[in-house]
């Protein structure tokens, strides 16, 4: 046996370096091959060609993967100083964001009848969906398109819910309803399917009442066939507050679902049904829930029936005297929490991780009312990807460049002031007030404040800090609330609006926190929204990082200069 040759540490280091270079080259070649296979755009589609029936993750979210060069350039840009935007930049004009003829359509289920077998129907759907995706990438640049769902199995869940439902609920986050609302879906439901659509502005505890009412009136004016209902599964201590400045509060765990909005939702459904279904039992349940405390423990297996999309049945309105209400929308907008709020207790699990609901499930609210919870689905649009990440639509654990979304947030919310950050280069200059902030500097300062350090060199862990900032923003502890067009100039009008006063009065007496619970270390960690309940299903990383402090303001715009 020949004697082994000595292998120095220097040689080993070179070997590992060469191996990494080969791996990067192979990955880039693979990116290029996939890229050429689809289109000439940069990036790649994240769809898989494995057998869906054998794949245990066939219902998970799937998005296209951006190239390494794009990610690398974004990280370099994140080191440059950002420019603070004026407060009016938070206003959104739906006519500009979704200009007719310039925004993508949604894939629609092909026509079918009972003469088609299930295999032939699925093959037809697969062909239609592939043609849709190909046309989408042909019509739009990959840089302009937002993240959107590329998993056909998830689209099939939506098609099934659209078919079986009498009324559709489109759940939207009040902080950015324009992001969660698809005009293409609105026209498909109201005009092609000829069904009623109710937009639920959820999580209204995370925005001032005046902004909630302004969005409601704006959307009803833009979309005449739309019914709008405001909803919140929990009551927060500061929903009526609109003072300038931050208040300090502790996070609280909630187990009881005490919702705002069930009666308004019942009223909208009753107006649509017009006596064709008896909704008196639902109304009685709402009145009972308002005057008594529901059982707070456990799941309700007798009321929950989970079904996979395995049947194709033509829809019949109000079949057997039952009203079927489909709950659809983007991931992480609180669809499952809304159902729990309507039930008055937990019947479906929730999580802050988008894509937690895997396939649609039916829940009987009463003997005459059936709810159908559809998995969250990201519709194609032209909104910025950074906003999608900050909204929790894209799984934060999979974000390859967390600094660009932090820069997007820092341009609209004064993070150094709100988080009380110290610039990393303060000690190296005599004029610290002249130092400029970049997204990376913000993350480094937050890492220092939270004591996030790397294990070996004990340097500030900017990646972990950026990840944590994204998570607390998604949770609503750093609040980025967008406004309808014209809100800023007419804020006094909306604050004195009759419905604003009613909403504030109705919410303020529900839930209050004593001063003894409000003392902390100068950093606010509010509780009481849907995200609190979602912590039950969160990751260990979430729990570890959130044991400390977070940030919020009673007025979402208080930190804007």
From TrEMBL:
Residues 155-380 form the CP-type G domain. CDD domains: HSR1_MMR1. Residues 1-20 have a biased composition (Basic residues). GO terms for molecular function: GTP binding; GTPase activity. Residues 551-561 have a biased composition (Polar residues). The keyword Nucleus does not apply. Pfam families: MMR_HSR1. It comes from the Eukaryota. InterPro entries: G_CP_dom, GNL1-like, GTP-bd, P-loop_NTPase. Residues 514-548 have a biased composition (Acidic residues). PANTHER family: GUANINE NUCLEOTIDE-BINDING PROTEIN-LIKE 1 (PTHR45709:SF3), LARGE SUBUNIT GTPASE 1 HOMOLOG-RELATED (PTHR45709). This is Guanine nucleotide-binding protein-like 1. It comes from Lottia gigantea (Giant owl limpet). The lineage of its organism: Eukaryota, Metazoa, Spiralia, Lophotrochozoa, Mollusca.
């Amino acid at each position: 046996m020949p004697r082994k040759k000595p292998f120095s540490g220097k040689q080993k280091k070179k070997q590992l370096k060469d191996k990494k270079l080969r791996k990067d080259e192979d990955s880039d070649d693979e990116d290029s091959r996939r890229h050429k296979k689809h289109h000439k755009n940069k990036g790649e589609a994240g769809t898989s060609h494995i057998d869906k029936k054998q794949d245990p993750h066939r219902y998970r979210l799937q998005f296209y993967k951006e190239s390494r060069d794009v990610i690398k350039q974004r990280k370099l840009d994140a080191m440059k100083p950002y420019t603070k935007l004026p407060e009016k930049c938070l206003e959104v004009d739906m006519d500009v964001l979704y200009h007719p003829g310039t925004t993508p359509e949604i894939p629609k289920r092909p026509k079918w009848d009972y003469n088609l077998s299930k295999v032939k129907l699925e093959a037809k759907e697969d062909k239609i969906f592939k043609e849709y995706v190909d046309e989408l990438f042909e019509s739009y640049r990959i840089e302009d398109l937002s993240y959107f769902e590329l998993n056909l199995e998830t689209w099939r869940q939506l098609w099934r819910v659209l078919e079986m439902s009498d009324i559709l609920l489109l759940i939207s986050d009040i902080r950015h309803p324009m992001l969660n609302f698809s005009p293409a879906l609105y026209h498909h439901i109201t005009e092609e399917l000829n069904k009623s659509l109710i937009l639920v502005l959820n999580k209204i505890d995370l925005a001032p009442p005046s902004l909630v009412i302004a969005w409601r009136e704006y959307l009803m004016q833009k979309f005449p066939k739309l019914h709008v209902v405001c909803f919140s599964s929990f009551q927060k201590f500061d929903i009526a507050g609109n003072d300038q400045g931050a208040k300090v509060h502790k996070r609280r765990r909630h187990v009881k679902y005490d919702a705002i909005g069930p009666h308004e939702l019942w009223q909208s459904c009753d107006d649509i049904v017009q006596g064709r279904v008896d909704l008196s039992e639902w109304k009685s349940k709402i009145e009972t829930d308002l005057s008594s405390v529901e059982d707070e423990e456990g799941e309700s297996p007798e009321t929950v029936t989970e079904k996979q999309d395995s049947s194709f049945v033509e829809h019949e309105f109000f079949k057997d005297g039952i009203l079927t209400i489909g709950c659809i929308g983007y991931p992480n907008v609180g669809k499952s929490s809304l159902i729990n709020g309507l039930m008055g207790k937990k019947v479906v699990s929730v999580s802050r991780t988008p894509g937690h609901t895997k396939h649609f499930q039916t829940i009987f609210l009463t003997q005459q009312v059936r709810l159908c919870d559809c998995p969250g689905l990201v519709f194609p649009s032209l909104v910025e990807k950074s906003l999608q990440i900050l909204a929790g639509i894209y799984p934060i654990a999979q974000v390859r460049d967390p600094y660009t979304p932090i820069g997007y947030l820092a341009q609209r919310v004064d993070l150094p002031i709100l988080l009380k950050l110290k610039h990393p280069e303060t000690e190296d200059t005599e004029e610290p007030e002249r130092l400029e902030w970049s997204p990376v500097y913000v993350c480094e300062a937050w890492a220092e404040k939270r004591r996030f350090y790397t294990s070996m060199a004990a340097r500030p862990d900017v990646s972990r800090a950026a990840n944590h900032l994204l998570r607390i923003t998604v949770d609503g502890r750093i609040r980025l609330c967008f406004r309808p067009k014209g809100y800023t100039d007419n804020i006094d009008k909306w604050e004195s609006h009759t419905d604003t006063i009613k909403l504030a009065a109705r919410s303020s007496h529900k839930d209050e926190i004593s001063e003894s619970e409000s003392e902390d270390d100068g950093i606010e960690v509010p509780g009481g929204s849907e995200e609190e309940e979602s912590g039950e299903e969160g990751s260990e990383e979430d729990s570890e990082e959130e044991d400390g402090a977070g940030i919020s303001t009673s007025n979402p715009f208080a930190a804007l200069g």
